Amino acid sequence: MGVNLVRLHLETDAMTDAVNDLRHVEAALIRRHGAPFRALERRIEALFDAPLPDDIVRLHDLAPGRFCAVPAGELSAILAEARRLKVLA
What we know:
By secondary structure, this protein is of the alpha+beta class. The protein is built from 3 helices and 3 strands. It has a 3-stranded mixed sheet.
């Protein structure tokens, strides 16, 4: 009797980088003043105060059985806004 194995590989480096960037943004916002920075802070708080949305991560199919997880949805939008405000390089 044969056994069929399925091997999957998920690359998570982009998500790890996004979470680290988010930590950096949270720490940097303490030293920033003004409405745009407070709005960004509230968006981060709202992201984690509710159940995480389904669209927070997108999987890219790299090859059969090989995927890459990247930030998407509100997480991606928050990081983009942080870059726009020069909170994140």
